[in-house]
Write a structure and sequence with these properties.
Four Helix Bundle (Hemerythrin (Met), subunit A); alpha/beta; 14% strand; flat; 3 domains; Gyrase A, domain 2; Rossmann fold; three-stranded antiparallel sheet
Length: 427
């Protein structure tokens, strides 16, 4: 504010009114002409006094104005996410709303943007607050039974607490499922296409991306490096990675490097599309490769078997080893297979096309909601034993702490740092 008084005026502009004026440097030369708006606390984005300059958008003009402000010694450049962090710390928004701002900026589809706006307007926060109110009431009943065991207070034996906790569990599960949709809209899935050389991996990438992203030939080892594309399926982003064909015997140094990179990508996948060449008469090598991938990833990554080249086979019978694994039959060179693949991926992800009631969410929210469900379930079991009310009260306290962590009421400083460091500089 002092910088403004020294450079432009003896007094600040009227609160929340735009003032058109020249922006001058320390040598009193005009840098630009624009608008200054003063937002007096607490009625600003951060809850603090804020002076906003609106100038012409050229990078040179912006740099000149910014340098003059910094030279005054009365201001410094904001850190990544600092404005939003200050808004959170000053109680203007809760942590889910702060995260929603970043999600809105980074949205890659219309549905992702809508879900972020819903969260920013409090859709997620309000649900958590409603759960907290119900939980506090139930905690009060349990605590009263502990504190007044000889009184005629019997909140638990009449079954109302158990009924309330069971209803709360159902609500938590519903919110977690909706939050999972929000995570899918914001983060999407990291899909890695793997398989033997010439199985049709690059053709599958081209089919999904809708363009010739990868060179396709009948020569084994054509794809020697990792290829990446991002697409949207009904608003859900998919990060698709095509890898070099995996084989143990190759004398090509470049191909060996590509295979090493392929293994690194496989280890970070949310789902692996294992492309199976249905035209091969002997399936043993492909089955062995599939088992090798499972072993290297400690069987922690979900698989889909993509039986490819079905247009060239009339009597194909899937290997019995893959009976219990999600699979589809396609021809990667047939455009009609695209809808089959998309529907399969949506089902595997548990993705719902509807945006009604959906809010943006993060992985940490899913974890906290799951922990809250687990604590409530433990509390229910303890209450049913009729002798461990103190332990059940502690489980309910832990449930409330999990919910409060979502809103940022009880959150570690290092987590806050990680969250706000993902913002663009200044926001």
């Amino acid at each position: 504010m002092r910088f403004y008084r020294q450079s432009y005026s003896k007094k600040l502009p009227k609160n929340r009114y735009a003032e058109y004026l020249p922006f001058k440097g320390s040598n009193d030369k005009i840098i630009d002409e624009g608008i200054a708006i003063y937002f007096q606390k607490p009625h600003s984005y951060t809850g603090e006094d804020v002076l906003e300059f609106q100038c012409h958008g050229g990078s040179v003009v912006l740099d000149l104005l910014l340098n003059e402000i910094l030279k005054s010694g009365l201001a410094r450049q904001a850190q990544a996410g600092e404005f939003t962090e200050r808004a959170f710390l000053n109680g203007k928004i809760d942590l889910t709303q702060a995260e929603a701002i970043a999600d809105l900026i980074n949205a890659t589809s219309e549905k992702a943007a809508i879900s972020a706006i819903n969260s920013l307007q409090g859709a997620f926060s309000n649900k958590i607050k409603e759960l907290n109110e119900k939980l506090i009431k139930l905690r009060t009943y349990v605590e009263a039974t502990i504190d007044f065991p000889d009184e005629s207070i019997d909140f638990i034996d009449d079954g109302q607490v158990l009924i309330g906790l069971n209803e709360l569990t159902k609500e938590l599960e519903a919110i977690r499922k909706t939050a999972n949709q929000g995570v899918l809209l914001q983060e999407g899935l990291r899909i890695v296409i793997a398989g033997q050389p010439n199985a049709g991996k690059s053709s599958l990438l081209n089919l999904l991306s809708g363009k010739e992203s990868a060179i396709v030939t009948d020569i084994a080892g054509t794809t020697r490096d990792v290829l990446k594309e991002q697409i949207n399926i009904d608003g859900m982003p998919l990060h698709i990675i095509d890898t070099a064909g995996l084989r143990n015997h190759t004398n090509d140094i470049v191909e060996k490097i590509g295979i090493d990179r392929a293994w690194k990508e496989i280890e970070t996948a949310n789902r692996i599309l294992f492309v199976f060449d249905s035209t091969q008469k002997d399936y043993e090598e492909q089955i062995n490769l599939f088992n090798l991938i499972k072993d290297k990833t400690n069987n922690k990554i979900a698989f889909s078997i993509i039986y490819n080249k079905l247009d060239l086979v009339t009597d194909f019978v899937p290997p019995k080893e893959f009976t219990d694994i999600a699979s589809i039959k396609i021809s990667a060179k047939d455009a009609n297979s695209l809808d089959v693949i998309k529907e399969h991926l949506k089902q595997c992800a548990g993705y719902d096309n509807s945006t009604e009631g959906v809010f943006s969410a993060r992985r940490r929210h899913i974890v906290s909601l799951q922990k809250a469900e687990d604590h409530i379930q433990t509390a229910i079991e303890l209450i049913q034993n009729q002798s461990m009310f103190e332990l059940s009260a502690e489980e309910l306290r832990s449930t409330q702490q999990c919910l409060n962590e979502i809103l940022g009421e009880y959150t570690a400083d290092d987590l806050l740092g990680n969250i706000f460091n993902t913002f663009c500089v200044g926001k």
